[in-house]
Amino acid sequence: MIKKYIEKSNFEETGFSYTLSLISGKHKMVILYCLMEFQIVRFNELKRYIKKVSDKTLSNNLKELEKDGLIIRTEYNQIPPKVEYSLSEKGKSLMEILDLLCIWGENNRN
Amino acid sequence: MIKKYIEKSNFEETGFSYTLSLISGKHKMVILYCLMEFQIVRFNELKRYIKKVSDKTLSNNLKELEKDGLIIRTEYNQIPPKVEYSLSEKGKSLMEILDLLCIWGENNRN
DNA sequence: CAGAATCCCTTACGATACTG
DNA sequence: CAGTATCGTAAGGGATTCTG
């Protein structure tokens, strides 16, 4: 079962490479965890939550997460603007596995 | 359980951040998968396997994987040099979870 | 064979200023 | 409030050459 990924011998085409591409990006994981905890979060709430992140980088990370179908962006047409972010079903299913990596990390550092 | 990582509100200290730091690096995953399949592999075998990778990058990736305790480097004192790489127990336990991400990726792209 | 050393380049990210 | 636009920096990685 591992073997099938290896035999392709082209890592770019493996499922793992795809998964990694979704979560690479400095703040994507923090964003996902934040959405998992609070369900619905706004742009500036995320910004305060992550502490050190530029508008540009946060915006880019959110766009990619949305494009990849992990989060949902809901825009309310009003002044001042209001945008809410939340996890999609796909995002939730990914988080279940990522939580295992959290636990593994807790148990294996040191 | 998720919550405890969030409440710290310092992602750098979470188990997930630690796990990610181990597998970031362009070729680390391919290396780990290769070691999982073939058990014992030499430097130039890895290089041929990955196809497009420079000596420097491969060397760096291997050093970090060794420093982080995921792989074992065995050096034979001889001319010409001979070095063998293999997975540690820690590396094997990580691969079990990473395989879930492979499967998730296979099922969720498109 | 298994790297180390050097040079170059791309990309991600941050800081700042500005806008509908 | 939720971004966009612009500029600048630093790290990662590639190609090439050299060595015990």
Automatic annotation (TrEMBL), chains A, B:
Q: Does the keyword DNA-binding apply?
A: yes
Which Pfam family is an annotated match for this chain, by its short name?
HxlR
Task: Please name the GO terms that the record assigns under molecular function.
Answer: DNA binding
Q: Which UniProt keywords apply?
A: DNA-binding, Transcription, Transcription regulation
InterPro entries reported in the protein's UniProt record: HTH_HxlR (IPR002577), WH-like_DNA-bd_sf (IPR036388), WH_DNA-bd_sf (IPR036390)
**Residues annotated as domain HTH hxlR-type:** 14-110
Protein name in UniProt: Transcriptional regulator
